[in-house]
Request: fold
Amino acid sequence: MDYLKIIGRKNLNGTVKISGAKNAALPLLTATILAKNEVNISNLPNVVDIRTLLKLLGMLGASYDHNDTDISIDTSSLDKTTATYDIVKTMRASILVLGPLLTRFGHCEVSLPGGCAIGQRPVDLHLKALEIMGANIEIKNGYIIATAKDGLKGATIVFDKVTVTGTENIVMAAALAHGTSTLINCAKEPEVVQLCEVLRDAGVSIDGIGTNTLIIEGTKGELLEFKPFEIIPDRIEAGTYLCIGAITNSILKIEAVIPEHLEAVLAKFEQMGYMILKEKNAITICPANKISPVNIVTTEYPGFPTDMQAQFMALATMADGISIIDEKLFENRFMHVSELVRMGADIKLNGTVATIKGTPKQLLGTDVMATDLRASSALVIAGLVAKNETTIHRIYHLDRGYDRLEEKLTLIGANIKRGKE
Ligand code: UD1
Reply:
């Protein structure tokens, strides 16, 4: 297994180019199941989750030509409809094949994803919505067995909770359905918006893009003609590098970003005393005279993202005072707390609320364990400011979602090396 060794407290500066968004690329790749033509996609991030999904699409019978950030994918040869446990267990987002497979073929079997490090994460809302659209759903031997012999029917669906992949699955299902679907209480994340825009450009009538109500006119089973498109920038990777600039008190510029996607995150940096300079596709963070503590409540977009919670917790350990972070979306997303505490942080947990007593320069390097994707990036952030050496074990989580992390960090002056154990 790989580990990362970081020697902290180096001065960083320069520019980081942000990659395409993993969470936009995943649903967009599964959306190609709805295509009648070969689809050309650019700005794919070079991360393990994308390769895992491509492996799954390949197992289903798709063929593709993948070259780092670009792909041509042809799903016309797709002839299998089972997403097996061995692949779904490595990546929950594999559930995103459910809607497209069912709406195209009228049946599919997808392994139930089960829980994960950050909580239970059920898919009941995806299944309930498909049932309302006329699907018959059975759970057998750990698999979701879905059938809709004459195709899915358009319906009105009210999501009990805002769910990102749930919205995406049902948008894709509705795209080929018979009749009009009205989806209420949808997620509005930029990744959901891009999926809707790409489907609209491929010929599906979708109203309300970017709002929480989507009205989708299904094509009655007719496959779509996709235009080439480029994946939007990864706002979470961008926010992570801004945290790196912030914690090391460096002037750091990130480019190839959409600043509007990061408003809630940028507001928190400003509250903590950092100066943020926005350009059309770039953001620069400048050092704070004093790092002020911050209060954060994670919520759906456009609120503060749960995917940035761990990184801000690392940053809050260096603030001058007490910060409070309330994790509203995932009940168990605090795996990084015990590791940050091992590095000398003072963090108390009470249910979903973490209280972080910050003091400048308190972190000390040691051995820590990565437990999920964003928790791992919090440990990298902490390691970059900690005294001496930090070794982060089990970094396969980081490789799932951060494109060329060591390369990008080395370019801005970090001392970070990968090793094998
Ligand atoms: C997506 C993102 C993930 C991010 C999360 C929240 C992808 C691939 N992943 O995950 O990075 O952290 O959004 O922004 O885009 N829920 C249910 N039943 C369901 C579905 C969800 O109860 O059927 C609950 C979840 O347990 C959670 C909340 O709804 O408490 C939101 O989860 P959801 O938006 O579905 O997260 P994901 O789409 O899995």
In short: Residues 23, 26, 93, 121-126, 161, 163-166, 305-307, 329-330 surround uridine-diphosphate-N-acetylglucosamine (CB under 6 Å). The chain is about 30% helix and 25% strand. The longest helix spans residues 48-60.
